[in-house]
Structures are given as structure tokens and as C-alpha cells.
Amino acid sequence: MNFKVTKVSSGVVKPAEPTPNPTLRLAWVDRYPTHRGLVESMHMYHAATNPAKVIRDALAKALVFFYPLAGHIVEPIPGEPAIECSAKGVYFVEAKANCSLEDAKYLERPLLIPKEELVPCPGSKEWEVEPHNTAIMMQVTTFACGGFVMGLRTNHAVADGMGAAQFIQAVGDMARGLAKPLVMPVWDREKFPDPKIKPNPLPELPILALDYAIIDFPIDYINKSKSQYMECTGKFCSTFDILTAKLWQCRTRALNLQPESTVKLSFFASVRHLLKLDKGYYGNSIFPVKLTAPSKKVLSSTLLEVVNFIQEAKKIMQLEFLDFAKEKIETDPFQMTFNYESVYVSDWSKIGFVDVDYGFEKPMLCSPLVNNDFIASVVILKAPPPLVGARLLASCVTKEHSMEFVSGMKIMD
Questions:
Q1: Nearby residues of 39 by Cβ (< 8 Å), 6 or more positions away
Q2: Which tens digit of pLDDT belongs to each residue from 12-46?
Q3: % helix / strand / coil in the chain, to the nearest 5?
Q4: Which residues are annotated as catalytic?
Q5: How would you label 231-260 residue by residue, b for 16+ Cβ within 10 Å and e otherwise?
Q6: What is the band of 110 on the pLDDT scale with cuts at 50, 70, 90?
Q7: Lowest mean pLDDT among 351-365, 369-383, 392-406
Q8: What is the pLDDT confidence band of residue 78, given thresholds at 50, 70 and 90?
Q9: Quick check: 30 and 91 in contact, CB under 8 A?
Q10: DSSP labels, 342-400
Q11: Do 298 and 250 form a contact (C-beta atoms < 8 A)?
Q12: How confident is the model at residue 372 (pLDDT cuts 50, 70, 90)?
């Protein structure tokens, strides 16, 4: 079958009511160079009645409260991007697919429909704002079965994952007939530290030709591992801790490095609790957690010991963040190493996308649409029904090491 997505309509959704028009300064972390780009994701739902209209109307209402997202990024001072609350609106596309979600294998990887057909990609005549200056774009693609996919592109400079999910939850609130979002947004970007540290230039990215794998972990394995950790240490650990520890060990083993070779693991952690930010804060509020160890140390340790390494790194991050906030460090803490010995992990399982309800029940699947051969990375998701547990989207090893990596990850004794 030749799968085809046809654009039914496209245009701009503006706030349903007049909104303020200030130019708002972004936080230091928002202005970080790597955050000036669009994060693409798909959000899949069962059959619904006229979802594009429902979401379009709800979007207009939500933008009254999240009016900065109806604006665009400007640089009144070079290197100091800000949001101009221009009420230009959000570029929105309604589309239809000539197949059912089942025909398209529920968009499991490899995608049978190119991701470019599932997210809004306006031409210059349709949308005058350059993509890297756009706050958010949306597309609703309805399938022959009645199910739909909401394709989302959000600018990381405006919101982190939790912030983007907060906005989409507000759209859901409006779609269900609420008068205002359950969580009211606050800007408050001045509450994030604004040190005089200058970000380092972006490094050159290697071409790694990474293989792609999907690995599901049943809830029984996750709970058993957590219980073992509690029995051994008397401490709680998260699903993220367990799966990231296993990932680091299995990947290190698959790479077959020299014992003294350095391997690195990095991820971003929320610092909302450290800053005591309002629940409605939707800007970036993250700080890197970095682990470095000789290959032999990662491999000679038990899984639970590697979990300990991760938990200790989280504690160190809190101290490093406080030093960053007090301007006690002079180097860029967000500087990363992009080589094959380094792996980066993102946790999408709890940021809030899976809770978005437009009145059609919650989504079957929420997943980033990332294809890159530059950064060895893994994304942790909530497993899609009927599975219960977690799913890893892994793009972190080359074909040469893929079989060893995947086979190791699937050992769940």
C-alpha cells in the first residue's frame, strides 16, 4: 500500500482574546545555543470526532493564557534572544492519511510514513517566521480508522519537556470545556540563575552511523530490580535509575573497549525543586548530570552498584547547580562531549505528555521523532498499551555493536 498524507488545511491559530504584547527576556538556560531548535514529537490517539477542529479551537483558548507561545523569538541584543509577544499565532495543519493506524503499524519504527509528513513543515509563503524563531507548531493527522496523531514541534528555547507538556495539557483542559488551565502558567524566567558564564561554542558533531532499536521492559522486571535495590541499600531508586544503569553496562560491554578507556553517561535533571519554582513555570529548568568512569569499573560493578553511581551523580549535580547559581564556577557546565564513548539519556515517561486528554481519552503513545547520526542517545518512554512497563528508543551503537547491545539489554533475569 502506498501510504499518503494529504494536507487538508493550514493556517495560523491566534489567541481567542486580546493578549499583552511585551518583549520577554528568556532565562540563561533558555538562551543556551543548543536549545534554539525545534523538538519534534508525535502523540497518537484512538478514534475521535473531528479532532482537528476540537484541538484548533482549544489551542486558541489556551494561547490566551500562554500568550508568549503565540509570539516569536527575536534578538534585540545579539546573543540575547527574547520572546516578542506579537500574537502572530501558532502555525496549524489539518491533514488526512489514506490508511489506518493499524496499516501503518501504529507508526512503530521504522516509520512507514516519513516523519516530515506527520509534523508541520511550512513553506516561507505559509509562515513568515523562521523555524528556529518559532515557539510552537502543530499538525493533526486523522487516519482512516478515525484515530489521529498530533504532530508537535516546540522550540526548546521557550520550554523544556515538562513545560511543553504543561502547555499541551492546557490545550486539553480547554478542549474538555474548562474555563482556564488546571495549572496556570507563570513566566518567572528571572528566577532561574543568570550567571555571567558564556556558553562555549558548539562542538563539531561526529558522524556515527547509529543503529536503531526498540526495547521493552515489563513492569515485573522493573519492580523486581527496585525491590532488590531497596533490600540491599534501604533506599528507593527510580525506573530511570534501573534502566539507565542497565543501558550503560550493556552499551559499555558491546563497545568492547580497553579496560582503562573512559566512558561517559549524561542526562538532564529538573532543578525546579531546588529553585522552588511555581508549578506553572514552563521554561527550561534543567541542569546536566555527568558520569565518567573507566570501562572496567562499569563492567565489573553489579547493576545495583551502577544505580548507586547514578544516584551519587544526581547529588553532586545539586551541589554543582548551587555553585552555578552563586557564580562560584567559571566554566560552562552545559558543555558536552560528543564522541562514541559518550551516551545521552532522556526520560519522556513522566514529563506529562501521556496525561493529555482532549476529551478523547489519553494517548496510546507519545514519542519524540528523532533521527540523528551525531549523538549516541536513548529515550525512555512509558510502554504503549497493552504493554505495562517502559520502552527504550535506542540510537546509541553502530551496526557493528548492535547485536551485542540489544541481546544484553534483553537479558532480564
A1: 153, 154, 155, 156, 161, 164, 368
A2: 999 999 999 999 999 999 999 889 889 999 999 99
A3: 30, 25, 40
A4: 156, 357
A5: eeeeeebbbbbbbbbbbbbbbbbbbebeee
A6: confident
A7: 369-383
A8: confident
A9: no
A10: EEEEEE-SSSSGGG--SSS-S-SEEEE----SSS-EEEEEEPPTT--EEEEEEEEEEHH
A11: no
A12: confident
Residue 34 dihedral angles phi and psi, to the nearest 5°: -70, -15
53 Cβ partners below 8 Å, 6+ apart?
A: none
Single out the residue of 377, 371, 36 nearest to residue 202, CA to CA: 36
Between CA 157 and CA 28 the distance in angstroms is 10
End-to-end CA distance of the chain: 41
Cis peptide before 110 (omega within 30 of 0): yes
Domains in the chain: boundaries:
5-191, 210-409
Same fold, 5-191 and 210-409: yes
Distance in angstroms (rounded) separating the CA atoms of residues 26 and 116? 29
Q: Is the pLDDT score of 159 beyond 90?
A: yes
Q: What is the DSSP letter of 43?
A: E
Instruction: Please give the average per-residue pLDDT across 196-220, as a whole number.
Output: 87
Exposure of 153 by Cβ count < 10 A (0-12 exposed, 13-18 middle, 19+ buried)? buried
State how far the Cα of 203 lies from the Cα of 164, in Å rounded to an integer.
27
Average pLDDT of the segment spanning 354-381: 91
| Assigned fold of 5-191 | Chloramphenicol Acetyltransferase (3.30.559)
Write the pLDDT tens digit of every residue in 172-181: 999 999 999 9
Question: For 75-178, where are the alpha helices, taking DSSP H only?
Answer: 161-175
Q: Report CA torsion sign: 208, 122, 359, 277.
A: positive
Measured between alpha carbons, how far is 53 from 57 in angstroms, rounded to an integer? 6
> Looking up cell 509577544, which residue turns up?
85
User: What integer is the mean pLDDT of 282-305?
Assistant: 97
Look up residue 394 and give its three cell numbers: 535506542
CA atoms within 13 A on the CB side of 119: 20
Amino acid at 126: E
Give the cell for residue 150. 498530533
Report whether 350 contacts 318 (CB < 8 A). Answer: no
Tell me what pLDDT residue 157 has: 96
Is domain 210-409 classified as CATH 3.40.190.10? no
